[in-house]
Amino acid sequence: MATLSFHASPVTARKIRSAARKRGIPMSRFLRETAERAAAGEPVSGLGRELEKLAIDGLAFAALARVRSRAATTGLDKMTPRQITAVIKATRRAHRA
Q1: Spatial CA neighbour of 38 closest among 23, 24, 55
Q2: pTM
């Protein structure tokens, strides 16, 4: 059996654990069943939609943390808004050429 994983913020993890507890099943089973229903194309319940949003938010928070970490290590976190705009414009020009 394959193992899948994702990153979730502490708030998201608490919400998922709480939802699994309310159904009286282990969190791994709760996540597996929810994912299987979504993959099968079943209409997503309100809870399923909420879990999808939580998963997306968790991934977004993890990505943002990685971006901030990389920016801090390269010194890019100290750029002014004007410098950021200049870099974006230069990158866009380079992509068009």
Answers
A1: 55
A2: 0.43
- Return contacts of 52-60, CB within 8 angstroms, 24+ apart: 54/8, 54/12, 54/15, 54/16, 55/6, 55/8, 55/12, 57/9, 57/12, 58/6, 58/7, 58/8, 58/9, 58/12, 58/13, 59/6, 59/7
pLDDT digits 0-9 by tens, 31-67: 888 888 878 876 666 766 777 777 888 888 888 888 8
Cα 46–48–50 angle (5° rounding)?
Answer: 70
Distance CA 30, CA 76 (A): 41
